[in-house]
Amino acid sequence: MSVFDGLKFRKIYSPVHNLDPRMKFIYVIIVFAVAIIFSSMIPLVSLFLMQVPFVMLARVQKQWLRSLRGAMFLALFIFSINIATNFFTQGYTLNAKNIEDAATMTMRFLVLVESFSVFFLTTSPDHLGLALEQSKIPYEFSFAFTTAVRFVPVLAEEAQTIMDAQKARGLELEKGNFLKRIRNYVPVLIPLIVSAIRRSLELAEAMESRAWGATKKRTNLYELKFHRGDYVLLALTIGVLIVTIYAFLYVPIPTIRSFFGFP
Amino acid sequence: MPIIETKNLSYTYPSASRPAILDVSIKVEKGEFVLITGPSGCGKTTLCRTFNGLIPHFYQGELKGEIIVAGKDAKNHPTVEMAEHVGMVFQNPENQLFALSVEKDVAFGLENLGFSREEMRKRVNWALKLAGIYDLRERSPHEMSGGQQQRVAIAAVLAMQPEIIVLDEPTSFLDPLSAEKIFEVIYDLNQKLGITVVLVEHRLDLTAKYADHIIIMDEGKICFDGNTREVLSKQETRLIGVGIPKATLLYEMLKKEGARLSNKTPLCSRELADIIQEALK
Amino acid sequence: MLVVEDVQFTYPSGVEALKGVSLTVKDGEFVAIMGQNGAGKTTLVKHFNGLLKPTRGSVRVNNVDTSKSSVATLARHVGFVFQNPDHQLFCETVDDEIAFALKNFGYEQCIIEKRITWAVNLLGLSQYRKTSPFMLSGGERKRVALASVLAWDPQILVLDEPTIGQDHRQKENLRQFIMQLQTQGKTIVIVTHDVEFVAECNPRVVLMREGKILADGQGKQILTNPTLLEQASIVLPQIAQIFKHLTTQGFPVNIIDIYEAKNLLMEKLEERKHECL
After folding, report:
1. pLDDT tens for residues A50-102?
2. Same domain, yes or no, for C168 and C208?
3. B60 touching A, CB under 8 A?
4. Which end of chain C is less enclosed by CB atoms within 10 A, N or C?
5. How many domains does chain A divide into?
């Protein structure tokens, strides 16, 4: 699914890739807050366009566009649902206000997809894991996260091998009606689950043998430190937040439909 | 004082009907390279797991008899405490590496023990260099070969600077060439750093030459325990079903047919070739 | 009969695993495919039962083009035993496990019963018929996997790394079992890097390297050629290693059998004894 392409980390070098994931996360949260505060098209569209230079700086335009394309389906769905809701709850009329409201909701969704996409495209799982480790979250959770990410390719390969092994015994995964097809996966799922359990026992043994749980004060080989770029991002994001709050409180924002003479 | 000593050690797994090891009494001296071998199911893996406390603490079940490792009573010290003295390398390379980079994996034990960052850096670099993988330190484990992964596991154990390293069939999944390289690394650690090595292996042709001391087990009991050359020249070992090095077997065959060869039983092809060359002078 | 004609195969990830491989395996042959990890051995044998279809070139099994056939159809002729039996086992009893493929292939219940009994006896598993395969030891699980593939009596048997994790005795049993199957006329293909095992069996050896076939010939010839083995990153068998160190004494290098070695050495030693007298 192309929307997932927009979430897979790409190992390129750009200033954005080097930014501290915690700072990038703050950026995502603030974009989220700003998107919630405004319910009119102009600020949301500006918010959307403002992030584009950021995307270009991160050199992930292609993947980002792909994720947007994938999100279009969901966006259309949101648009239609909103139109339909407005239609049915506001007296069966379809006017400019309804359309603009629905468009606004959709735009909000797209802004969020945009910022999350940039976050995941430019943050490696290691970096993420490190950020988790350094935060107040208990180590067990960040360990679970990084270990899971570490084993995803291993499990994927294993699933393929198991499918091959069972196909070689005559299993035809594609045959039969819907129910039969689900049953066909039992010979694939059981070995996969058993293997996962065995694997976790072996991992636990290895962890114990390397002093897991020796002290509560676990140290870390790496340390995430904020650099100049992180502070620049912080300043920009906070700047946008301040402008947002000011605009929301004091600046009357015209609606798109008012340009066309609609109420 | 031996660095590992067991007296009448017996253990039964929780759901098993028979003991996995019975009445095992062995002594391993500091700095020795010990080889433990025997047919599948003989109890060698079980015995290994008693050295660092996985048995009885991780596996539960009843452990009878005495066991002292690095001066500690392993029955009463959980694995976490034994980890600084006894490092363990397991059979499957993939299931011993958890981190997303080699460096982080090697540092794992030290992080658990709360070492300072500077000390960790030093030890991690030292261990990586000894295992010959310093250049691979930023790679992720999944993109490495089995042999490289096992080296990471060895480095990870080494970083904690244990007195003893136990390796349970570390080359099972590796091809013979990678296996040879791993054994060379291990032997190097034993010779250069004086680390006591306990190696469980089937491939005697690749490992017998490194070991001063060999222990052969069968059905949970110790069958032979002593100097490698002495034990492997005994006829009785042929009955157990271990892979005696072909060089040793060939030497025996030649001696039986009356060949006048030196009395030193060869443990590998090179040694036999040298003996033959001597005899042909 | 297996005919591989100039097969090239590239994985979806872009890795070129096979770069033009041609091979013919006649009925009843015993072939060992050897080479380093990544040489393309497993990729090649996965073409035999259609798990992989060539990007270019063709593979024909008993004159059937694999690219036009499904895995299930090809599997009836080519039984594939994977390296790790735990990747196959999922049933509640050994009987069910062996019956799985037979059911997939549409055998009738009475025939299935007969086949299970036959397979179970062949591999010494009769006392475990109603046992769960998960309760068995590693070696026993390997036998169950083998039994479940032999049950439908495929003409060609492919074993992927059958000696991994096996002790000396188990390997000896496996070797004798393969010999037994051969006398029954089966075609056996093993993928392995266990040089000693192959030296004991002395089959036809196909050496692979970087997606191509480096050498194809009698085991004894190939396994004692140090240049070839070095190129393929394989170690010499133990007996050959002894003679490699003795070339200055005029010994031939192509010895892999222990009895042949003994005779040769005794000859030379007796000669020397007489020279001294």
Report:
1. 888 888 887 778 878 888 888 888 888 888 888 888 778 777 777 777 788 88
2. yes
3. no
4. C
5. 2
